[in-house]
Every structure is written in C-alpha cells, then in structure tokens.
Amino acid sequence: MSWRDLVVPLAVALVLADAPTADAFPWSTDMFRGAAVQPLSIPPRVMPAGTLPMRGGEPPMSREEAAVVLKNPLLPTPAHLHHAEHLFVTHCAPCHGSAGMGDGPVASHTLVPAANLTLGQPTERSDGYIYATIRNGSIVMPAYGDAMSPEERWQLVLYVRDLQRRAGP
Prior knowledge:
With 169 residues, the protein is mainly alpha-helical. It has a domain at 63-167: Cytochrome c-like domain (Cytochrome Bc1 Complex, Chain D, domain 2). It has helices at residues 4-17, 63-69, 78-96, 121-124, 127-136, 150-167. α3 packs across α6 (150-167). The longest helix is centred in the middle third of the chain and has 19 residues, at 78-96. The model has no long low-confidence stretch (mean pLDDT 83).
C-alpha cells in the first residue's frame, strides 16, 4: 500500500473530524428542527423596499433609520424590567456581562470584545438604535430578532437604560 492510497481516506477523515462544529453557528438559528417542523418561522429573504409582511409586523430597517424613526412604546415599570432582566441574563450577559460592562464569560474568548453598554457610544445612542441592534445584530453581535418579540426587545432597551442609570455618569 502506497502513500497515495492513503490520501483520499485521510482527506475524508479530516473533513468528518471537523463536522461537529458545523451546528454551532449561527447561535440562534435552530437547524435541528428545520422548515418541515417550523414552516415559515424565519422569513426566507429580505423583503423588497416598501413592502410589509402579510400579517403586519416590522418593516426592514437599518440601525440608522431606527435611531430616528423608532421610539420605545413601553414605560420602565418593575414588571417590564424584571422580565427584561431574565432576557438579558439569557441572551446578553454571556458577552456583555451581568452589569453590561462587556466582561461576560464569552467576551474573553472573542477576537472583538463585547461593548460596554454603560459607557461611551451605547449611552449616546437612541432607544431605536439599540432596539435595531438587538433585532438586526451588528458586525460581531448575532441578531436576536427571531428569538424574541418586539415587546421583549423594547423591554431589553429599558433594561439597558436601567443598567446605564445604575452605573452612573
């Protein structure tokens, strides 16, 4: 048996050895229960400009547009903040940390550090911009638009503002 006879099996073994990592990304997309189990659960493509989904809903919007157009319809009630805290711990704290300072357990393992939500630009951004960032994601942050309702996203905006208030000037 020559080394040439081993090349193909070795190449196949290397490809198969890396297969378990294929289900790790993107984080919030459920590839184990596909379209046959969850039909139409995720829009198949971006809608053309000026159109809306049949059942209403939010039109596609960039973070810059959302910063100007969207306003938080919710008030920072204890119930909203309590629910948002659970959402934050589940979806945000792994990267941003429990206090929103960008020191979560995942943050030390990424090439680009998570944003500190209590200082700098996040404190200067509008509620609409933060909402659109949660919905659409950013360069390094995954989109959570399919993981929570619009009301839950607005509650998270309230919670981020509460973290900023608690962190002080």
